[in-house]
Amino acid sequence: MLSASFILDPAFTIAPVSRRTFGSFVEHMGRCVYTGIYEPSHPTADADGFRADVLALTRELGVSVVRYPGGNFVSGYRWEDGIGPVADRPVRRDLAWHSLETNEIGIDEFMRWAGKAGVEVMYAVNLGTRGVQEALDVQEYLNQPDRTHLARLRQANGHPEPYGVTMFCLGNELDGPWQTGHKTAHEYGRLAVETARAMRSAEPGLELVACGSSSSAMPTFAAWEAEVLELTYDAVDYISAHAYYEPHDGDLGSFLASAVDMDHFVTSVAATADSVGARLKSDKKLKISFDEWNVWYQSAFHAQQATGWEVAPRVIEDSYNVVDAVVVGSLLISLLRHSDRVTAACLAQLVNVIAPIRTEPDGPAWRQTIFHPFALTSRLARGEVLRVEARSPGYETARFGTVPVLDAVATHDAGSGEVTVFVVNRHLTESLDLAVSLAGFPAGLRVGESWTLADDDLYAVNTAADPDRVVPRAAKDAEVTDGVLRAALPPASWTAVRLTTG
Ligand code: AHR
């Protein structure tokens, strides 16, 4: 039996838990929008055509902010196509996913859905085929209270009040050769700074996100961030990061250590941003918006990319297994651990397309395995994130060398006195005995609830026919004795334990 331990203390704070860490992403891609969030003929559809089953699951997931409308899609999107009478809206080619966009859902419908879901919207403007003027136009349509042409157009379309969107992404993945309107760092940096300055002159309080790298494996990783930030530093608040993980050649050991790459991604981008800030003699610290992250079986996707100009084709509807859920749980641990820099993050995507929620047209909606660690972390992570320096055995991985078997983070809510510990046992075959010293906290903490996601079948999935095949179970053996929380973590498992004073 392996064992690991760490000491928790309320003084070991990193930063407050940012609710925006629990964001997600709705792109006009595949069946995320059509037959995902929207399906007017569905038995649960509300008066606006939104699936009530999906709305309920979105709320249960604990999503705080949703990035919209793309993604690669946004780099060829004309937002004006999606406003006004639906019958008059044009059908367009979507070059990113080789499908047809009917524009039945546009800004006004999506903002209505977001209101029902209780989420903030992070809006991405098109800097692929478009530029400063179109970004200003969509901002005016969204946020100008009244009297201007686009504010009046919004009002005429039935929305008297401005939407008050504060967070805007300045394009999407423009470092990627696959992106419509792909640019060099210099070309993008110039366009982003011009767009940011113009948008800010209308609304100084906006929170603007410059595009960072599409993955840490991009050949331009870090050089892209340095050059873009040299040009945009004063005008933006965030640099974005995107990362998707999958097992390579069945190597689950490396896959379970994916958070090592996420940690490296965040610390590298933060160091690059700080280096630019130092050169510019700026006191400002840029934040990171990790606005696309997930497990994605991307190598399988490349083999079947052609989708043949259909409306809402089935694209990358990955079914997630137990190990995928453990990896998602550990990526959330990484995001929380970096809460001093990462204050927004979006699990990509929300429904059907590499998503925690799956649907069938005219059929059920269900929770994929990855739904569970996300929903529990969003519900239980409260207050301040606490630093964890664990003693843990290591294991060898092909991709990352020796990696600790234990991944861990904790949060402390000073108001309620509650402490929550989030841990992953990355070992594929051995249980891990965990001991957490709570000596820095007042006596009396006890286990309020504890959840473990693990299974003898690491490849088990949830399906329409068996939607609860993989669910978190109460971690029965977790208990506090003599100021020490003890739990036995099964192989390849994710666990959350909430400690309460009551
Ligand atoms: O989320 C799927 C796609 O992944 C997005 O459209 C793009 O931004 C990223 O490459």
UniProtKB/TrEMBL annotation:
Domain Alpha-L-arabinofuranosidase C-terminal positions: 291-493
Example GO biological process: L-arabinose metabolic process
Pfam family, one: Alpha-L-AF_C
Protein name listed in UniProt: non-reducing end alpha-L-arabinofuranosidase
Subunit text: Homohexamer; trimer of dimers.
Catalytic activity: Hydrolysis of terminal non-reducing alpha-L-arabinofuranoside residues in alpha-L-arabinosides
One Gene Ontology molecular-function label: alpha-L-arabinofuranosidase activity
Alphabetical UniProt keywords: Carbohydrate metabolism, Glycosidase, Hydrolase
Keyword Hydrolase belongs to the record: yes
Family: Belongs to the glycosyl hydrolase 51 family.
Enzyme Commission (EC) number: 3.2.1.55
Keyword Calcium recorded: no
Highest taxon, organism lineage: Bacteria
PANTHER family: ALPHA-L-ARABINOFURANOSIDASE C, ALPHA-L-ARABINOFURANOSIDASE C-RELATED
